[in-house]
Write a sequence for this structure.
């Protein structure tokens, strides 16, 4: 039970080793008693901690959706025979765990739901470039790194989700939500909890300039409520407590609609923002070959098909989704990702101040 | 000679306890403080103060404290009459109520608040059932509503402490007052209240820190009414880009300071108002007759309490868990048990999560009780500075927001130089639970132990009992109820622990709480609610079995 740990380079060095081994064995006595794949074995051969055994695994930290992440991992495991340890959580949870593990990283590959955060990882020098990834040239170039630090293998678009029982003629523009007829009926996700909502806000502001704030101020005046992360904002609309979500993540809406819930989504005519979902290899990886193979798999036809089946936008431009609107059917704002990445914190701060 | 050896044993125990506490609790927290003063790799001791001076934190801190005070008031109003009824009237025989009343406490706070929200919101279950009651809707979504939800969640905790104390006070003292002609009000004010004060102080303190360290309700209900507290601020810095542990820990240290101040106040009260109640003369329940009107009122009170604390939230939770389409709402034909079928199929992911929860919390609660009892005995009457230090250290996890404690634990156990490979194992999860919940046992055992008169131990020694014999035959039976309460509490909360589990579980491992959380995140609200029903149901069942076994043992 105790020996499922990852053996770490930190211990191998120096005179600490002897002490470490005795102390470690004494305390984790049960660890030595029950041999396992990587733990106890590694303890025995600490000097040359085996490349052979460690190469049979890969640690992936992935932001949802739950079902898709599991299918992708299963697909990769079947292809490569590598055992994947998957940690699932929101982008925030993953980042917090990575930060806590900073001195002793565990993850090999991260899949996040927010481009600015992976841009941040790149800026901090935490990512491992892999420019020769297979099919990388077919990815939408706006969403991925030219030097191969991260690859957006899927994306979602942001729209207005509405309850079809309560809203008969859906709004066509972002400005419509500030109309008196929708007073107190609209939710908007909290940008400090939802990376995609933040993408919408920064994207909208990067396209409209500072004048863009007028829209959000009008929202506030019209009683738009800031309501948790994406699903928390959507749920009251499904049950009819609210009528609409501004900046709703589209695949969640498609999923609820497919189930039969009274809900649908529109993309406003002046354009919206796409929220790419990047995958990156961490520089600290101890299973570099497996990590690279995993990225190759995420970009493969098979994996991209799984993405499309989960009602997400495929990252590759040559793969079409049949359960949802494709990229060419969604009007887009003229966004600037660099500005968005740089200004995320300020926008969150200002936005939450307005909506407090 | 015998006395000396007892002293020596005590000294050794005290030192050892300090070392263990330092390794388990203090060092991880220190790691966090170190993080908060190192900004970008350089040492800046001003950094935490800069954060605090930075902006609106004073008002957020005030919101937290005000909430804590109001919830103390709320839980007192609910728990005090209940404890009195359950120790002084014929209803005391309803022992099953003790287990039932743990249900609100077992319900994860964010699920309980969600139940209330689903019930009270626009187009919610209340309006679907009784449309004319929609007037309550808007007044519910307010600060008062939040205090009510949190009080209904936390009152069982105070109740258990108060009832324990009232039972120990026993009937004779109050009867003496009655014989002397004291009215009920007078007796309550001059006899019961002073005797209750130390237990109440402990309970109120813990309610206070539980409230201001609580994350679930502020995250669901508080956000909806725009009431910001410290934990939601801390959580923001710890879980959204860019992650800033420094800011989070600076805020956490403010929270910690506030809690320690309250703790100090409480220990002053405690030292002033502790009386030796268990003196070997035995105690028995009050024989004062309670009028049938009072009994009727008591029954009504209990029923109302059960409806508010269990009935309404669980109506929502069960309704949501059996709904085919949540967009349709309460309607025949919209009812399904598919979610339960999906959850309970053997070998499924959900089943695994459930089993993980059960075994992890069984392990954790057992270890926590042993450790906690040891700390509580070492602390004793907290006379020396060292004893008070052990006391303070062992209560730290309850005064630090869970999420901060957990980050500290990760920093400590996943350091490159840490020789014990515990991180990313089940052992780490158990350790985290033990650390988070050990204060409960400490409190319960201490509360039982401080009221035992030392004359009893002296009597044991006079009759030649060696320390171990005195411990086994005198101390242990007296603190056993406290240990049991601690075990039950720890098991209960550990099995629904969320914040720590989210960060600390090894990859590919889930517990029932993280499973529920994941379902909400994925839009599978019904599936999440079904899991909540099952996990709370299982815990309740287990506690009932224990209670029955326990009462049978008493009969023999």
């Amino acid at each position: 039970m105790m020996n499922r740990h990852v053996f770490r380079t930190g211990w191998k060095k120096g005179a600490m080793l002897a002490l470490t081994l005795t102390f470690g064995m004494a305390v984790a006595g049960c660890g030595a008693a029950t041999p396992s794949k990587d733990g106890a074995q590694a303890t025995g051969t600490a000097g040359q901690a085996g490349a052979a055994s460690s190469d049979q695994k890969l640690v992936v930290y992935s932001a949802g959706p739950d079902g898709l992440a599991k299918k992708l991992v299963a697909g990769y495991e079947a292809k490569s025979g590598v055992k994947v340890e998957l940690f699932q959580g929101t982008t925030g949870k993953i980042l917090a765990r990575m930060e806590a593990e900073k001195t002793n990283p565990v993850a090999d590959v991260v899949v996040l739901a927010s481009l600015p955060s992976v841009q941040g990882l790149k800026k901090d020098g935490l990512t491992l470039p892999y420019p020769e990834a297979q099919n990388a040239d077919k990815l939408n170039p706006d969403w991925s790194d030219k030097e191969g630090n991260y690859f957006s293998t899927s994306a979602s678009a942001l729209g207005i989700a509405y309850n079809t029982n309560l809203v008969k003629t859906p709004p066509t523009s972002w400005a419509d939500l500030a109309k008196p007829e929708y007073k107190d009926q609209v939710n908007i996700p909290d940008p400090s909890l939802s990376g995609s909502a933040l993408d919408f806000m920064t994207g909208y502001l990067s396209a409209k300039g500072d004048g863009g704030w007028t829209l959000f101020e009008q929202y506030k005046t019209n009683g738009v409520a800031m309501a948790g992360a994406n699903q928390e904002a959507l749920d009251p609309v499904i049950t009819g407590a609210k009528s609409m979500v501004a900046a709703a993540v589209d695949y969640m809406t498609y999923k609820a609609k497919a189930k039969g819930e009274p809900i649908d989504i529109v993309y406003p005519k002046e354009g919206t923002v796409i929220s790419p979902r990047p995958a990156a290899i961490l520089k600290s990886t101890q299973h570099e070959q497996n990590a690279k193979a995993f990225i190759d798999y995420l970009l493969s036809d098979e994996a991209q098909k799984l993405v499309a089946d989960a009602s997400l936008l495929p990252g590759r431009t040559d793969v079409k989704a049949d359960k949802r609107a494709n990229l060419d059917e969604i009007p887009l704002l003229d966004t600037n990702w660099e500005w968005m990445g740089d200004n995320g914190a300020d926008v969150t701060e200002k936005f939450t101040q307005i909506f407090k | 000679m015998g006395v000396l050896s007892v002293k020596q044993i005590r000294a050794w125990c005290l030192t050892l306890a300090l070392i263990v506490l330092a390794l388990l609790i203090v060092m991880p927290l220190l790691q966090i403080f170190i993080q908060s003063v190192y900004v970008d790799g350089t040492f800046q001791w001003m950094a935490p103060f800069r954060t605090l001076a930075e902006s609106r934190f004073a008002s957020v801190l005030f919101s937290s404290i005000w909430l804590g005070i109001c919830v103390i008031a709320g839980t007192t109003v609910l728990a005090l009459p209940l404890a009195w009824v359950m120790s002084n009237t014929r209803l005391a025989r309803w022992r099953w109520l003790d287990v039932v009343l743990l249900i609100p406490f077992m319900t994860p706070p964010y699920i309980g608040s969600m139940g209330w929200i689903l019930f009270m919101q626009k187009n919610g279950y209340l309006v679907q059932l009784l449309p004319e009651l929609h007037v309550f809707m808007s007044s519910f979504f307010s600060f008062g509503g939040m205090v009510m939800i949190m009080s209904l969640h936390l009152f069982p905790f105070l109740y258990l402490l108060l009832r324990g104390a009232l039972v120990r006070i026993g009937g004779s003292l109050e009867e003496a007052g009655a014989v002397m002609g004291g009215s009920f009000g007078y007796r309550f004010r001059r006899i019961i209240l002073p005797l209750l004060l130390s237990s109440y102080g402990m309970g109120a303190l813990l309610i206070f820190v539980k409230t201001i360290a609580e994350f679930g309700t502020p995250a669901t209900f508080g956000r909806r009414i725009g009431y910001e507290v410290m934990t939601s601020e801390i959580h923001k810095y710890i879980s959204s880009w860019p992650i800033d542990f420094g800011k989070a820990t600076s805020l956490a240290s403010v929270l910690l300071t506030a809690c320690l101040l309250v703790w100090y106040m409480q220990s002053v009260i405690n030292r002033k108002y502790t009386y030796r109640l268990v003196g070997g003369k035995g105690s028995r329940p009050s024989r004062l007759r309670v009028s049938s009107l009072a009994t009727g009122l008591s029954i009504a009170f209990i029923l109302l309490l059960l409806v508010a604390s269990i009935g309404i939230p669980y109506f929502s939770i069960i309704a949501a868990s059996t709904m085919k389409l949540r967009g349709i709402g309460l309607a025949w034909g919209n009812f399904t048990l598919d979610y339960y079928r999906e959850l309970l199929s053997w070998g499924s992911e959900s089943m695994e999560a459930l089993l993980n929860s059960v075994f992890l919390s069984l392990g954790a609660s057992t270890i926590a009780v042993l450790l906690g009892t040891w700390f509580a005995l070492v602390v004793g009457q907290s006379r020396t500075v060292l004893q008070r230090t052990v006391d303070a250290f062992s209560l730290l996890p309850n005064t630090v927001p869970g999420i901060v404690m957990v980050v500290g634990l990760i920093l400590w156990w996943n350091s490159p130089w840490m020789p014990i490979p515990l991180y990313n194992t089940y052992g780490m999860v158990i350790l985290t639970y033990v650390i988070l919940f050990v204060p409960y046992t400490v409190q319960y055992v201490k509360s039982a132990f401080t009221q035992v008169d030392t004359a009893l131990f002296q009597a044991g020694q006079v009759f030649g009992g060696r320390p171990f014999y005195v411990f086994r035959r005198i101390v242990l039976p007296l603190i056993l109820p406290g240990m049991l309460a601690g075990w039950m509490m720890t098991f209960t909360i550990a099995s629904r622990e969320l914040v720590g589990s989210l960060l600390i579980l090894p990859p590919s491992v889930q517990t029932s709480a993280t499973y529920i959380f994941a379902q909400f995140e994925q839009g599978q609200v019904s599936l999440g609610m079904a899991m909540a029903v099952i996990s709370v149901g299982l815990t309740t069942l287990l506690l009932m079995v224990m209670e029955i076994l326990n009462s049978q043992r008493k009969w023999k």
Q: What stands out?
A: Chain A has two domains: 57-155+276-325, 157-273+345-355.
